[in-house]
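[User] I wish I could look at a protein chain and see how it folds. I have put the entry right below:
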Amino acid sequence: MNKKNLNIGMIGCGFMAKTHSNAYSNVAHFFDVPYQPVLKTVCDLNAERAAAFAAKWGYEQIESDWRKVVADPAIDLIDICLPNNLHAEVAIAAAEAGKAVVSEKPLARTAAEAEPMVAAVEKAGVPNFVSFNYRRIPAVALAKRIIDEGKLGRVFHYRANFLQDWTINANVPQGGKDTWRLNVKEAGSGVTGDLLAHCIDLAIWQNGPVRDVTALTETFIKERMNAVTGKMEPVGIDDACTFLCRFANGSLGNFESTRYARGHKALFTFEINGEHASIKWDLHDLHRLQYFDHRDEGAVRGWRSIHVSDGDQPFMGAWWVPGLAIGYGESFTHQFKEFLEGMASGKPAGPTFRDALETNRICDAVLASAKSGQWVTV
C-alpha cells in the first residue's frame, strides 16, 4: 500500500527526542499505519548537537531556529521535546501554521499556560497529542480493558507512586541542558509535574475525573547552583509530593512521588481495588499485570500474574511470538500508531491537548493545596 509521507520536525534533541525518533522509525515496520513518518528536520540551539543527533537517527537536515522549522511548508508535524516552559510558544505557532502538533508531557507548566495551547489547536483544527506514553504499555492497556469490561465492579481505591533518587546529592545543579527539571522557571514544578503527571494521567484515564485533593510537598535541599549562571539560587520545585483525592465515582486516591527514595531509579506502580477484583502493575516488571478476582473458587483464589505477550492482548499481535516481552521504548511506537490512525480516521487518539489540560489542572490543585494546607476542588 502506498502511504503518504508525514514529514517530522523534531524540536529538541534530548532523551525524549530519542524515544520519539525511535518510535517514528519503527512504527510502520510493525503496524499498518496510514502514514509513513519521515525524519525530516531536527532542531536544537546548538547546531553541532543537532548535527550529531541527525547523523545518529537519520534526519535529513538540521536547524537551530525552531521558527524556521514551523514555517517550512515541507514539514507536516511538529514534535516538541523541549523544557516545559517552551512548549506553549512552539505549539501555538505550529498550530497557527497548520501543522499537526505532538508535545512531551506535561502539556505546560500550569493550566493557565496550557489553555491557550488548547485554544490554538482547536481553532486551527490540527491533530494534537501529548506523550503520556505509559497508557500504551500493553499490560497497562490490558488493565484499562479489564476496567472497561466492568470486571472490577465498583472501584473503592486507586493508589499510585513514582519514586526516584537522582537528586539527593546537594551538588546536583539546577537549570541548563541536563538539569532543567530542577529549575522552577523551566519546569514549573518538581515531581508533581514531572512524575505525578504520569500517575494522574493514568488515573483519570482508568478511573475518571478527580473531584478534590489535599496535598503535602517538601523541598529538601533549599539552594542549588544554577548550571547556567554558576550562582547559588533558591530551589523552587518540589522534591517530594504526597496527595489524597476523591474521584467523581466516589473512590479514594492515594498518590506519592519523590526523587529522594534511595534505591529507586524509576519505581512506578498503580493498584486499583474494586468490589469484585483488584489489579496492580509495576514498571519494573512492565510486561506483567497482577490480577485478583474474589469470584474465583475459594481454594484457588489468589493473585495471578498475567504475562502480557499473547496476540490477543493489546498491541502484542504485531510483535514477537507469545512469551517474548517488549519494553519501554515500544510504548512510544504504540502511541504514534494510534496517533497516526487517529489523524487518518478523524477520531483523535488521546490524550489530546484538551485531555492533558485536565492533568495540568489537577497538578495545579495539588500544589495549591500543599501551599494552603486545605482541600482544593479541581
Notes: The two ends are 47 Å apart (CA to CA).
